[in-house]
Write a structure and sequence with these properties.
Radius of gyration: 15 Å
Helix content: under 10%
Shape: globular
Strand order of the largest sheet: 1-2-9-4-7
Order of helices and strands: EEEEEEEEE
Largest sheet: 5 strands, antiparallel
Structural class: mainly beta
Strand content: over 45%
Number of strands: 9
Amino acid sequence: IDLARRPDEPGQRALLGEFGHGRVNFRGIAQMVMLPPGSYQLRGEYKGQTVGRRGLEWHINCASGGKLIAKTPMATGSTPEWTEFTATFTIPETDCRAQEIRLWFDARSASEQLITGSMWYDKLQIARSQ
């Protein structure tokens, strides 16, 4: 995982995850945020190609207790053009003062940890829902 120069936009950088051949034990990357209670939308775009039974997702969890409050659709296979994704979620009134946004490789078993390829993510943002 790295912030790499976008080949299609000189001077711009994006998040790049590259996976070699074999089993991957990717624990993800995360950012802690403190959003007040309310409705939100995580937005961004991705492109790339991976080969494997499972793919990458963005998870939004309450930091205390780890309760999953949203996740994006899984990015897997071939997506050669920048493709938008969204996840709408609500921060509850109680027990979720801080939140963790995590890019996660959703492998549920050893055989699902086999992945190769790369995936780019850019233009990530969290905005209040209207």
